[in-house]
Amino acid sequence: MLTKNDILTKNGLSVTQSRTQILELFLKSNGALSHADIERNTGAAFDRVTIYRTLQTFTDKGIIHQIPTTDNSILYALCRENCEAGHHHDNHVHFICLQCNATTCLADVTVPDVRLPKGFVARQSAMLVWGFCENCKQE
Amino acid sequence: MLTKNDILTKNGLSVTQSRTQILELFLKSNGALSHADIERNTGAAFDRVTIYRTLQTFTDKGIIHQIPTTDNSILYALCRENCEAGHHHDNHVHFICLQCNATTCLADVTVPDVRLPKGFVARQSAMLVWGFCENCKQE
DNA sequence: GTAACTGCAAAATATTTGCATCCTT
DNA sequence: AAGGATGCAAATATTTTGCAGTTAC
């Protein structure tokens, strides 16, 4: 299994404190993180700007991917091994819990194909599902 | 067919310049609009703040719905007739053109159901498809 | 040693809030 | 006339940029 450092060096990135620690956060949470989440969870260890730049770098390299949201923020989550720089293959469904507000990658649930109207050509797709997660089930 | 004023009064909203004009914008474009789009397309006729508040009001009343994006912005599009205040039923696929960047509501393409892992309960879902629209076909 | 990364300061941008005034009903 | 909507000013919050100092290799 790849270590944090492997992931960084494999992508031609030098191993620094902020990168290691932010990457660790992603590895620990199997869900998605926002800039604010990361800021909160690293204490005030790193500058806001460093976090912005790290997220950008990770996205460019295909280490993390962005998850669309309706609340004017961006969520990021780890890519699986098959993502490459500039080319994401995060074709799984993302689940947002209405109770605890966590966003989870359902890595095993593939985004289904849909038939598009004549003239439209699909290149990529994303699917979001809102509801209650395993920890927040309603009875 | 409902006129602009009908839509407003039916929702208990008074008919004002900004609401009429912004609603008209939505009726004209069958796609999605951002706050910036609206600002641009109305000249400097209305205050930024008014646009924020109008979009919020329309969303609350179920006149428009939000479309998730990955670029830290919110897009809005008209709901079909069956949306009610606080309860959106915009269960269609949204298409984003990689060329012209327009977002289109594919009102006839329903978001397919997916089978979720044990313990997850779905309440709502959204699907985004990126590609080339009818006007921007690649040969 | 050198290139790349980080932190700080500041600029630019986006969003929210309070309040006085104006408009719709 | 009364309540709600708007515009303005200002407070917050978010994101980007430039640059000097530091760190990884």
Structure description:
Two copies of one chain form a homodimer. Chain A contains four helices and six strands. The model of chain A has no long low-confidence stretch (mean pLDDT 90). In chain A, strands 1-3-2 form a three-stranded antiparallel sheet. Chain A has a three-stranded mixed sheet with strand order 5-4-6, with no helix packed on it. Chain A starts with a helix and ends in a 7-residue tail after the last strand. By secondary structure, the first copy, chain A, is α+β, with helices and mostly antiparallel strands. Chain A has helices at 4-10, 17-28, 35-41, 48-61; strands spanning 33-34, 64-67, 75-78, 92-97, 103-110, 121-132. In chain A, β2 (64-67) and β3 (75-78) form a beta hairpin. Chain A has one domain: Arc Repressor Mutant, subunit A (Orthogonal Bundle), CATH 1.10.10.10. Helices cover 29% and strands 26% of the residues of chain A. β6 of chain A pairs antiparallel with β6 (121-132) of chain B, so a sheet runs across the interface. Chain A binds a DNA duplex (25 and 25 nucleotides) through α2 and α4.
List the helices and strands and how they pair.
The structure is a homodimer of 139-residue chains.
Chain A: H1 4-10, H2 17-28, E1 33-34, H3 35-41, H4 48-61, E2 64-67, E3 75-78, E4 92-97, E5 103-110, E6 121-132
Parallel strand pairs in A: 4-6
Antiparallel strand pairs in A: 1-3, 2-3, 4-5
The structure holds a DNA duplex (25 and 25 nucleotides).
